[in-house]
Amino acid sequence: MDDVRASVLSTIGNTPLVKLNRTGCRNIEIYVKLEYYSPGFSIKDRIAIGMIEDAERKGILKKGDTVIGKTSGNTGIGLAIACAVKGYKFITVMSAGNSMEKTVMLKALGAEVVLVPQQPGEGPYVVSRKDNEAVEKKTDELTEELHAYRPNQYINPVNYLIHEYTTGSEIIKQSDGNIDAFVAFVGTGGTFVGISSALKKFRKDIKCYPVEPDSAQFLAGKQVITTRHKIQGGGHAVKPPYWDESLVDGYLSVTDDEAIDTARHLASKEGIFPGFSGGANVAAAMKLDKTMDRGSIVVTVLPDSGLKYLSSDLYKF
Ligand code: PMP
């Protein structure tokens, strides 16, 4: 019994970093961190267990407590796993615009799912800023009513610190520090801020680029045309509270079609099956091919799996 984990929680993180071989890029090499290898099949397992154990250490979360989370699904799935293993009741509040695969999985993991109907005019598989605000309001109300503990990923510094200490340092170790640039799609900003902090502390000249939907280049300071894009998990045109401009070397954006086409390309040509934001991240990384020197290494993350979007049009041809 020398290679056994004490519980599924010990299988979170330490995900593989994989070279892409069929990008068609002339100058750069792209490496992707396959975050769907974690038990909840997303990068958010890392912050879920991080926030729960931080609250336990601080005495904020105690046996018998209820945990509540506002999520686009993935953080909820991570929290549901952590709460199932540790014995907390878990309620997740999410927009009906998120894919039903996440809802099904959350329920299977023992979570109570509160679905907030979409706002008038908003469509399925799209979570707009208005939808996001409605979910926030509902979560606030329920947290107060139930005296629940809310590990709020939007303001909890554990969100980015976990990425600095785990995802970021794993990338440095796995690549032997051979990295020239990093790109990441921004939701709460935890992934971008945490990993970029680790990389910049390691070597100041590693370039870091946040990724936004083409129609909502809010952080880049451009006019937001619409937050009704398909890249679930971010692009809500809000500035994360711990956003750190000094980490940013430039902004990248991708259209829905670029994200989808790239996800399909990864699936059919590289055997890698990402969600929308993974497609967006690689599409954005590929844009650096035009400006970076030959042999440059660009790293990004694939936040979750295409299996979470089977009912959407991501892989419907
Ligand atoms: N992609 C997906 C699928 C996500 O669920 C999230 C998180 N909501 C992100 C990207 C963005 O990550 P972060 O919140 O760390 O910016």
Automatic annotation (TrEMBL):
Belongs to the cysteine synthase/cystathionine beta-synthase family. It holds the Pfam family PALP. The lineage of its organism: Archaea, Methanobacteriati, Thermoplasmatota, Thermoplasmata, Thermoplasmatales. Its cofactor is pyridoxal 5'-phosphate. It comes from the Archaea. InterPro entries: Cys_Synth/Cystath_Beta-Synth, P-phosphate_BS, TrpB-like_PALP, TrpB-like_PALP_sf. PROSITE patterns: CYS_SYNTHASE. Residues 10-304 form the Tryptophan synthase beta chain-like PALP domain. PANTHER family: CYSTATHIONINE BETA-SYNTHASE. The keyword Transferase applies. This is Tryptophan synthase beta chain-like PALP domain-containing protein. Transmembrane segments: none annotated. Keywords: Amino-acid biosynthesis, Cysteine biosynthesis, Pyridoxal phosphate, Transferase. GO terms for molecular function: transferase activity. GO terms for biological process: cysteine biosynthetic process from serine. It comes from Ferroplasma acidarmanus Fer1.
